[in-house]
Design goal:
The complex is a heterodimer of chains A (98) and B (310). Chain A has one domain. Chain A contains 3 helices and no strands. The longest helix of chain A has 31 residues. Chain B is 71% helix and 0% strand. The chains are: A mainly alpha (98), B mainly alpha (310).
């Protein structure tokens, strides 16, 4: 059972890491600010979610798991709103097309 | 080679790379972004060194508050000031000074006897007298309380320094541009959702500071961040420097600390000594008052001086 749990963690955290990698590639390669923001937030939210999911299997009890989920939710909230603010600033400056 | 060692080596290389990049960055804004990432990476380094208290402080102050202060400073720099690159002589001097400090630190660390001298056992041995369970808190508020007290006075001086930058005709005005422009809905939503959570987290970090990593500075900075966020969203107006309420909060912590320090003469015969029976409660009381003052100080420093109305 412990082996199965560890396997789940390794799989999920690796998948999460891959999402971060994809998001970073998008950040570096996409042509303009809005698509870069899109790549970053989508990949990061999913990536962090997968990592948290993987780590929940290792959490010491339900309280620890709840804290991990809280971290994920707070990061999502901050990330999503920061992106909105950035995107609106980009649009206001008229730099939304390459 | 173990996995932990590889992780640490990668972390060290990353910190060094970000540090070099921050120095090499030509524009102000990317350099600040580099500095903030550097602070956050350094926080992870402190966690790896099992110094969670220092890590929390580094993340809150090095990554958070200092980064915001630098951003504010960069935004205030006009084209006239700050764009002129430093001369080659100044750069060589700064480089030589940094090199000398690094060499001296490296020399000291590398010539330490093994095991390195430490006061940790004494710090832990004295814990029962203070009533707190976290030796870092005991060092900060009890053993070396005078340092913490002076540090808060220095912060107060910094606040006075920032206020001194206010032009005469703007004294008492609300510090702009906070809360004046029409704000983004996203910031308003973030302020409404995050601020209550942040306040609970900030207070919690101060409260657990007695027995676990945490404390007044880390918690106070979080509270300051929440105050600033709510102000940025335009939900509350910033307080002008002439506000009595703001000034009372600013001095509350240092004043209480000083009062308890002098009361030490009467209670246990020395400056800044706590009677063992009440030590824990006095320390918690001082920490609580300091937290509010620190939150106000950091907030006022970030808001900056009022500027002339155009």
């Amino acid at each position: 059972m412990s082996l199965l749990r560890d396997l789940f963690t390794v799989l999920m955290v690796s998948a999460g890491g891959f999402c971060f990698l994809a998001g970073t590639a998008g950040l570096l390669r996409f042509p303009d600010a809005l698509t870069r923001l899109h790549a970053l937030t989508k990949a990061d939210n999913l990536g962090l979610g997968l990592i948290v999911l993987g780590l929940i299997a290792q959490a010491p009890g339900p309280l620890g798991a709840l804290k991990l989920v809280a971290v994920w939710l707070l990061a999502q909230l901050a990330g999503a709103t920061a992106t909105q603010v950035l995107a609106r600033a980009v649009r206001a400056e008229g730099r939304d097309s390459p | 080679m173990s996995a932990a060692l590889i992780l640490d080596a990668c972390l060290v290389l990353l910190v060094l790379a970000v540090a070099v990049w921050t120095i090499a960055a030509r524009e102000t804004f990317p350099a600040i972004a580099g500095f903030v990432s550097y602070g956050l990476l350094l926080a992870i380094v402190w966690v790896r060194l099992s110094s969670v208290d220092v890590a929390l402080t580094e993340a809150a102050i090095g990554g958070g508050a200092t980064g915001v202060l630098l951003l504010g400073a960069a935004a205030r720099l006009t084209d006239r000031a700050g764009r002129r690159p430093a001369g080659i002589g100044l750069r060589i001097m700064a480089g030589a000074l940094c090199l000398a400090i690094t060499a001296a630190l490296a020399f000291v660390i590398l010539t330490l006897p093994d095991p390195a001298p430490t006061l940790a056992p004494q710090a832990v041995a004295g814990l029962p007298a203070t009533g707190v369970g976290n030796p870092i808190t005991a060092v900060l508020v009890a053993y070396r309380g005078i340092d913490t007290l002076l540090e808060k006075i220095v912060l107060l001086l910094a606040v006075i320094g920032v206020w001194c930058l206010t032009p005469d005709d703007s004294w008492g005005a609300l510090p702009a541009p906070w809360g004046t422009a029409r704000q983004d809905d996203a910031i308003v939503l973030l302020a409404r959702l995050l601020a209550p959570v942040g306040v609970v987290v900030g207070v919690y970090i101060v409260w657990v500071g007695a027995d676990d990593p945490g404390g007044a500075f880390q918690g106070g900075t979080i509270l300051a961040a929440m105050w600033l966020l709510v102000m940025m969203a335009g939900l509350i107006a910033p307080l002008p420097a002439t506000s009595r309420r703001l000034r009372r909060v600013l001095v509350a912590g240092p004043a209480l600390f000083l009062a308890v320090a002098f009361a030490g003469f009467a209670m246990s015969g020395d400056f800044l000594s706590y009677p063992p029976a009440y030590a824990k409660w006095l320390i918690k009381l001082i920490e609580a008052a300091l937290t509010l003052s620190i939150a106000a100080m950091v907030g006022v420093l970030v808001i900056g001086p009022a500027v002339r109305k155009r």
